[in-house]
Specification:
Layout (H helix, E strand, L loop, with lengths): L2 H11 L1 E3 L24 E11 L7 E14 L3 E4 L1 H4 L2 E8 L6 E9 L4 E6 L22 E6 L8 E15 L4 E8 L11 E4 L2 E10 L6 E5 H9 L1 E2 L2 E2 L7 E5 L3 H6 L9 E6 L14 E5 L2 E2 L5 E4 L3 E4 L1 H5 L6 E8 L2 E8 L18 E4 L2 E5 L2 H7 L8 H7 L14 E6 L14 E6 L2 E2 L3 H9 L5 E6 L4 E5 L3 H11 L8 H11 L1
Antiparallel strand pairs: 1-12, 2-3, 2-5, 3-4, 4-7, 5-6, 6-7, 8-9, 8-11, 9-10, 10-13, 11-12, 12-13, 14-15, 16-17, 17-18, 18-19, 18-22, 20-21, 22-23, 24-25, 25-26, 26-27, 27-28, 27-29, 29-30
Length: 505
């Protein structure tokens, strides 16, 4: 999967998530009959959320109320978008035929594919409702009916359009690339999580749209939905596998000759492998991937799909499960070999968007440290301000290759002013690489180095070699005073508390 390409696509098309933004578009109302779909199986979702402040990770940004859509499927479950219900504090759902709202709870969340399952404990909610079935991936030019509760009214809205494109797209909720379907049905904020119907069955869940275009929207298609449902057991969700390579096409004749690839052989060139990924230890730089699970890969990294369509090679991996094995036919050093690669989750150095769990943080001498994540980067870029270039470097630049095989990147967020840290008050949003001259691979190791500090001073070194030196005398007492003055509930996040407790035992 070419991560750089994914990121460029996300930036270029300027996608937005309907649950957060509204853009005007004509609404084309169409008549529908019960034979087309069951409208009472489409529900309105009322969510109250208190989003995490990733710049001040001990606190939240305040209560916000949003609405979205969902649909009832087999097993008395409600299927919707993850971004509709993430970071919720309270959820209610309502059927179109009733004004009564029922309390719902999130059972499973898949942030990578932007899907979630809700449960309603009161069985009365499902009386007389026939659940919608999951259909198949639609064909190009198929008509789809989008049903939901967009902003601009309180009643069910029905729009209709056609399937115009099927390809891997960047999912805004996770910044990952998965199969998506482009449609031209009119959809607006609040439609998120509602079904796209064809022949009475769900062929997709409304997800996101293109902000600078009219009537261009994207739905999560049936194959992705089925993968999510099959991978969900209660609150546990496995996720989509990730091969973990950077690759290029082999369209150039000189390149093919250099690697000994015949003109009609196809295949893609592996030029880098991510540490800890599925491919790590199985593939090598310079490998030419010719087939994935017996499917021939062309020189532009696509494969033949259905009659006359083509999809990205990554889709073949995405449709497998974590723990399964991908069988790759490879040309390596002028020999054809078969590599059986056990599939793992994405191993990104900069963690993909989580949206739900509070980030790790640690306050020491007024310095606030955390882990570099997509959530933090997106938070910094939410007000048209670009995150620091060092963050981008590790997220989508050459730093993402993770040549030092680190598990996490530690960030100095800011400095809470105090006498102990005078001269450093304007420091912040920096990558920290060493503690007392020692490197570390994870946030846990970083904390351990602080805790084990002996001597008069502690020295933090940033990526640009600039140091922050604090005296260790009474620093624990000073730290507690700083967090008390700044109304911070704890010196560190819950996960750090568990590390410290385990260490003390």
């Amino acid at each position: 999967m070419d991560k750089k390409k994914i990121k460029r696509i996300i930036v270029r098309v300027g996608l937005i998530i309907f649950g957060f933004m509204f853009f005007p578009a004509e609404v084309l109302l169409v008549s529908a009959t019960a034979a087309d779909f069951k409208t009472d199986s489409v529900v309105k979702i009322f969510a109250t959320r208190n989003t995490i402040d990733y710049v001040n990770p001990w606190q939240s940004r305040g209560v916000q109320e949003i609405t979205g859509s969902g649909c009832i499927i087999q097993g008395n479950r409600i299927l919707t978008n993850a971004h509709v219900v993430n970071q919720n504090t309270f959820i209610q759902v309502r059927r179109e035929s009733s004004q009564k709202k029922y309390i719902a709870k999130v059972e499973t969340v898949g942030n990578d594919c932007d899907l979630a399952i809700l449960r309603v404990e009161d069985p009365e909610f499902f009386n007389g409702v026939l659940p919608l079935e999951i259909g198949e991936l639609p064909e190009l030019q198929d008509k789809v009916t989008v049903v939901g509760f967009p902003m601009g009214g309180d009643k069910l809205s029905i729009t209709q359009g056609v399937v115009s494109r099927i390809e891997n797209i960047g999912y805004v909720n996770s910044d990952l690339s998965l199969l998506g379907v482009q449609i031209d049905a009119a959809i607006n904020a609040g439609n998120s999580g509602g079904p796209a119907i064809n022949n009475g069955k769900i062929v997709g869940i409304v997800m996101q749209g293109m902000s600078d275009s009219q009537n261009i929207g994207y739905i999560i298609p049936a194959p992705i939905i089925n993968h999510f449902l099959e991978d969900s057991v209660g609150s546990q969700y496995a996720g989509f596998p990730y091969l973990g390579i950077y690759f290029s096409n082999t369209e150039n004749k000189s390149l093919r000759k250099y690697y000994g690839v015949a003109d009609n052989a196809g295949g893609v060139l592996v030029y880098s492998i991510l540490p800890f990924s599925s491919a790590d230890g199985f593939l090598k730089e310079g490998d030419i991937i010719l087939e994935v699970n017996g499917v021939a890969i062309s020189d532009d990294a696509t494969f033949t799909f259905r009659d006359n369509e083509r999809l990205d090679m990554a889709h073949l991996i995405n449709m497998q499960k974590i723990g399964e094995t991908a069988v790759l036919k490879i040309r390596r050093e002028n020999k054809i070999i078969i590599e059986k690669v056990p599939l793992k989750p994405i191993p990104d150095l900069v963690k993909i968007a989580n949206h739900s769990d509070r980030p790790s943080f640690y306050v020491y001498g007024g310095l606030i440290f955390t882990i570099l994540s997509t959530d933090l980067i997106n938070s910094l870029g939410s007000n048209d301000n670009l995150p620091p270039l060092s963050f981008i470097y590790y997220n989508v630049g050459l730093g993402s290759l993770n040549e030092k095989r680190k598990k996490e990147i530690v960030v100095l967020l800011k400095v809470l002013s105090d006498e102990i840290n005078i001269g450093y008050h304007d420091r912040g949003f920096e990558i920290i690489t060493k503690v007392n001259g020692k490197e570390f691979d994870s946030f846990k190791q970083f904390v351990e180095l602080i805790e084990k500090t002996q001597g008069e001073n502690i020295v933090f070194e940033a990526e640009d070699k600039e140091k922050i030196i604090l005296t260790c005398k009474d620093i624990d007492k000073i730290t507690q005073d700083i967090i008390k003055r700044n109304n911070i509930s704890s010196q560190f996040s819950d996960d750090v508390a568990q590390w410290k407790k385990h260490g003390n035992n």
